[in-house]
Amino acid sequence: VVVSMDTLEHIRPDDRASFVDRLGSIAKRAIILGFPFSDDPGPGMMDRAMHELFENIFKTPHHWLEEHVRLGLPSYHKISAQLRSQGWIVRLIPQGYLPWSESLLPFTICASRLPGMQACIAEINDMSNEHLSPYDRNQPSYRMFLVASRTSLPETLFRDLTQRMDDHVHRLWSQVQQRMQHALLKQALELNGTLQQERMEHQ
User: Fold this and answer.
1) Strand (E) positions, the chain?
2) Alpha-carbon distances, residue 102 vs 1, 95, 110, 112 (angstroms)
């Protein structure tokens, strides 16, 4: 089994087909690909907004977001067609519910540059993984998984991957959002206190 996660979008568009061909030549039983995609406008719009936000705050490009924007995102329809033409059976699995990703990813990317935020980022990731992951495969999504196999895989592997949203899930998401907001507010207050202390010391 060959697995490639969040790689295809960092390869030049003209080289993506040959990269997928190479994966197919190595894999014996299955290929698992995961990447943000261009087939819907949402992921690309989100990447551009995150990149602009990061540049405005930190005055420098973000390394992998810059590649997303400059190279453009791959198409899961094109990759699926390429694999199917070579005899692979392809299943598509959305991942990264876009309305959540639009908050979680910018927070994680920007907060990771701030001192003392690593524990908070880990806590929020743990909260999301523990409580929201069964619902994170609803559409619209930020990323698409392609599971390609030489033979048909049992339906039981895919049957319960996506669970329907309900009020309980929305409450859980609200708790995650509140934790992010509290972390940023605490960071802003601590930074303000540090700046005020420095001003007093220089008076």
Assistant:
1) 2-5, 30-36, 89-97, 141-149
2) 31, 13, 13, 16
- Express each pLDDT in 22-44 by its tens digit: 999 999 999 999 999 999 999 99
Note the pTM of the prediction, 2 decimals.
0.86
Query: pLDDT, tens digit, for every residue of 88-126?
Result: 999 999 999 999 999 999 999 998 988 888 888 898 999
Nearest in space to 96 (alpha carbons), one of 64, 132, 53, 120: 132
Q: Rounded to whole angstroms, how far apart are CA atoms 94 and 152?
A: 19
- Provide the pLDDT for residue 105: 94
Structure tokens given for 125: 């990731």
Pairing of strands 30-36, 2-5: parallel
Q: SS3 for 91?
A: strand
* Whether 5 contacts 34, CB under 8 Å: yes
Give the other-Cβ count within 10 Å of 157's Cβ: 11
Residue 37 and residue 136 in contact, taking contact as beta carbons nearer than 8 Å: no
What are the distances in angstroms from CA 95 to CA 76, 143, 189? 13, 5, 35
Element (H or E) spanning 122, and its range? helix 118-131
CA distance 169 to 21: 40
CA distance 143 to 76: 10
Residue 147: phi and psi, rounded to 5, are -110, 110
